[in-house]
Amino acid sequence: MRIGIISDVHEDSIRLERAFTLLEKNNCDFLVCLGDIAGFDSRFYSYPNSRSLNYCISAIRENCRHVIPGNHDLFVLKKIPRWNHIFNFPENWYEISPQERKVCSNGLVWNFEHDLPVKPEKDHFEWLNSLEESVNLSIDGLKVLFTHSLFPDPAGMLTRKPVRHTDFTPHLEMLAELDCHLGISGHLHPNGIFRINRKKIIQAKFGLLDTGTDLLQLVCPCVADGNQDNGVTILDTATRTVEGIPLRTPKHQIIW
Questions:
Q1: How many CB atoms lie within 10 A of CB 240?
Q2: Strands, E, within the chain: which ranges?
Q3: CA distance linking residue 233 with residue 2, whole number of Å
């Protein structure tokens, strides 16, 4: 089974269409979206005239079998994540001001004050609100956990990002508890596919990679054309390989 994976679209309608076309050409059996359909921050993205949350939601609903909300999607919904083991969100979290949220969390939680305002259509809002925050699949004997980010913050609400190998240990331990060989997430916008196993962090890169037989976490590239190299990911559960394919947006000076 070939599973196409997209993540961190951030309202980029042009790159999303290119991603779907690329995955179709690579004969994917079905697609998974790892979240952050929403969230346009002009400090990082340069497509204000083509950003469209409602278009992106429509396209993802039509093309993706499984979709997980990201932290920016939860902000649009004004929804507290179901799982978070670091910060205890107060019930009035979205009723207080961004500055009050910053003080309350001691800067630990994203405020999204730079996200340009969006208003999903009612049907899209209800659909986003219905999504589960993780997907656990067993295909060809391979058990895979899909999340937006990493445990203990699978929704990616915290400003602190993992850097050291020990930062990834809780997530690897959770995979082991769930009897999953492989975890796949987005959120970190790596320049290719970022891999973490029990022993080390493996440099992010594009290309065809072996998932091996040991416990492994993959972090997928973003779709949005921002500061990092963007691309799509394809997991082949039969051959136990994963491929990162760059979208080659204009900043690469190559016509895709």
A1: 17
A2: 2-6, 30-33, 66-67, 134-139, 142-147, 182-185, 193-197, 201-205, 207-210, 216-219, 231-236, 241-246
A3: 10
- Neighbouring C-beta atoms of residue 145, cutoff 10 Å: 22
Handedness of CA 47, 53, 57, 58 (dihedral sign): negative
d(CA 157, CA 37): 15
pLDDT of residue 209: 97
Position 100, amino acid? E
Place of tokens 């001001």: 97
Report the topology of domain 2-252: Purple Acid Phosphatase; chain A, domain 2 (3.60.21)
Q: Helix, strand, coil shares of the chain as percentages rounded to 5?
A: 25, 25, 50
* pLDDT tens per residue across span 62-76: 999 999 999 999 999
Segments making up each domain of the chain, as ranges: 2-252
Locate 136 and state its tokens.
Answer: 């656990």
Q: What confidence score (pLDDT) does residue 35 get? A: 98
